[in-house]
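Long-time lurker, finally posting.

We've been working with Chloride channel protein (Oncorhynchus tshawytscha) and I want a structural starting point before designing mutants. I don't trust myself to interpret raw outputs, so I'm hoping someone here can both generate the structure tokens and explain anything notable. Sequence follows.
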Amino acid sequence: EYQELQFHTSHGHYWASYSVENRRPDLAGFAVSSTSVYVCLLEGSTGATPSEEMNGTGNLMDFLDEPFPDVGTYEDFHTIDWLREKSRDTDRHRKITTKSKESYWELIKSLLDAWSGWVVMLLIGMLTGTLAGVIDLAVDWMTDLKEGVCLSALYYSREQCCWTSNETTFDDRDKCPQWQKWAELMTGHSEGAGAYVLNYFLYVLWALLFSFLAVSLVRVFAPYACGSGIPEIKTILSGFIIRGYLGKWTLLIKTVTLVLAVSSGLSLGKEGPLVHVACCCGNLFCSLFSKYSKNEGKRREVLSAAAAAGVSVAFGAPIGGVLFSLEEVSYYFPLKTLWRSFFAALVAAFTLRAINPFGNSRLVLFYVEYHTPWYMAELVPFILLGVFGGLWGALFIRGNIAWCRRRKTTLLGKYPVLEVIVITGITAVLAFPNPYTRRSTSELISELFNDCGALESSQLCDYVNNPNMSRPVDDIPDRPAGPGVYSALWQLALALIFKIVITIFTFGMKIPSGLFIPSMMAYHHHDWIIFKNWCRPGADCVTPGLYAMVGAAACLGGVTRMTVSLVVIMFELTGGLEYIVPLMAAAVTSKWVADAFGKEGIYESHIQLNGYPYLDVRDEFTHRTLATDVMRPRRSEPPLAVLTQDSTTVEDVETLIKDTDYNGFPVVVSRESERLIGFVQRRELTVAIKTARQKQDGVVSSSVVYFTEDNPQVAEACDPQPLKLRRILNLSPFTVTDHTPMETVVDIFRKLGLRQCLVTRSGRLLGIITKKDVLRHMAQMMNQDPESIMFN
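Top reply, 14 upvotes:
Generated this for you. Predicted structure of Chloride channel protein:
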């Protein structure tokens, strides 16, 4: 229990014994005589115990017992260690639970820690819902600003302006005196070629101005604010670090430029970027709680819930948002995250409903209610719509990826502002003549989804009125189509072709651009004559809006390969609960057809294009290779860089860190035996040595670094002070044998979220397999370029 040691002080020569079990850092030792014990307080004492004074490791040992600053954090473009983050959170929770039994204050702190997750969800939902409402109102106003202005209030959109007008009549319900187009306001003439040309010119000018502002703000202030953000969100949720992608500047610029981009009339939507905005909100509130800011694994649980809140406000579909996060974007989704995602989506939807941006007491602009049942024979056209959606999805993905790859490899990528201006100009010039492409895409979908009624003024509802008919005026199926219907049909056909082509070139530009809405409006079905044999005379036979809805789901499913979440989003979006079977049939068919041309959806394709280290859990690995075929080093490569447990100097470690870019180093007993001891992370090693040099004078380049459990002994007084770094050593790194099948290794990396895996044989270290090595090998097995995985 006690050791008898000899030590020297400025006051003389003493014998001392001290307890190894209960060291007092403020006592230099216990002076012992035959009759009494004298406590000697040494002048200028460093607070070290006698043995440590002799060994030269004094307060460095005590210092290293405390947590290092920045230890456990990760470098940019690196992958987190899920197992380590989980272990750290378990240790943190255990300490809090233990302390909560000591006092009431610690108990209150433990309760606050337990409730912090729900508080974060509440804040995320409220901010996401508020931002979504502001974006909806701003987009509505700025979209109408391209065509005209409200005289009664400049900040009113056309619909809001006409709501407040008392001069609107039923016959002229599309017009109100308070709303004037630019030509009428400037020249006093609303009709004629001159007025048309002036309106045309100002429409294009406003569109160019909005898009130029959007791309300029993105390029100057927040380059990460471009695109939809969902491919990057998926990669981040899988454990990848992209610093600044979810930062405050990105949140601000993405919100502002999203309004500008959608208002410019480009063929894009705001739904995908809203997921990015919601995740930025989640990251912002994570920084307020150390529970999430210091643990990357816990942070990703919050981001998964934030993604659900983003889809909730984008489509007014809280349940669909939760399923979207589970099915499409999340990598690790425990049951606790499911509950919190539901709560965040609920709060976000409630906040948006309170703002009521569309003035219809709904969460979305195109909420519809169908009262006509569907017939079994209609499953055939529903499946055909699924086939069309799958073909459209495959065509879009191949065309868009080919264009984006060309953008990356040609001079076009060096001029993003010019590209946005050119695409916007082409879109505006071609869109203005067609009323179905001139208006915002959300308004177009709303018109296509809705049934015709007595109050509808759309050309699609231009049926012939016979004054001698005894049937009600809104009983449309028995009335013949008027010229407006035929005119609308060819205009919709042109709009379909235009949207298919222009969306391929628009998605992926350096502005916020979503894909949901352009995909949804890719097909509109009208009344076919063959349907007349399926229903009773005089009854509603076919609901055109239903076919538009099913076609929208089919196209969106073909592009994104979503199934369950897509069906739920669509029936929440439209309120068409009884049409789940048609939606399911179309979604499954579109996925099957699109998968025949390629397994990757648009987001996975962009992940591959950008070279993100994303290991998709849905991919199958069927090749018969072993861990020894993939591990590094190969036979032609230099030996593995390792550290020994008690013979490596600080200078050796610093040289190794300087000459290599590895994320970590295995620690072995000796270079001869190569028996594995553990694994140490590069960043933690760098921080530990840097901190020790600053806080402890005795550490020099020739100091020996120890990873052993026992305290290092100094042979001579002139030897430099040793450095013990046992604390940062991972004693249980994940290992496999060299004959482990790669199918098993890939499954381990997917399900455990490993960063690296060591390869051994009978305890002897042979090599290492990193996540990047796994991705390279999988790409090589699929005859792809293994060097396309750019990041660590």
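Before you design anything, note these points.
Confidence is low (pLDDT under 50) at residues 1-66, 472-476, 521-532.
The chain has 29 helices and 15 strands.
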